[in-house]
Design a protein that fits this description.
CATH topology: de novo design (two linked rop proteins)
Number of strands: 2
Number of domains: 1
Strand content: 5-15%
Largest sheet: 2 strands, antiparallel
Strand order of the largest sheet: 1-2
Order of helices and strands: HHHHHEE
Mean pLDDT: 95
């Protein structure tokens, strides 16, 4: 269900992407509380980063992965945090799916990564 969380359509659309994965991919109440005072992209980043770290510390790696992804979303390519957060997303994925194997698959002469669960 699409929810009106922000007047800012970009923020609203992105937060709804995560809320659509509740309860598996996020804690709805945690997300809504974190977003209460967000009005700018820096606040967006800090709010998502904070709940990502909380989820990680509580071993809720799938939630943490989604939250880090949202923290990264509005960062500019030249911001150093973008690469750091991307690496955290990969780390949380690996923690949540420890038995996943990454393989390479050739499609039209292009090597594509695939995950085997």
């Amino acid at each position: 269900m699409f929810e009106h969380v922000f007047n800012n359509v970009n923020f609203n659309y992105q937060v709804n992407r995560v809320l659509s994965f509740h309860p598996t991919g996020c804690d709805r109440q945690e997300v809504l509380e974190a977003m209460e005072n967000v009005t700018q992209t820096e606040e967006w980043y800090q709010a998502w980063l904070q709940i990502a770290q909380i989820a990680e510390n509580e071993s809720r790696y799938l939630h943490s992965m989604y939250y880090y992804r949202m923290a990264e979303f509005f960062l500019l390519p030249e911001q150093a945090e973008k690469e750091e957060i991307y690496l955290k997303i990969k780390e949380m994925f690996a923690r949540y799916y420890p038995n996943v194997k990454k393989k390479k698959f050739l499609i039209n002469k292009v090597i594509c990564p695939v995950f085997e669960f």
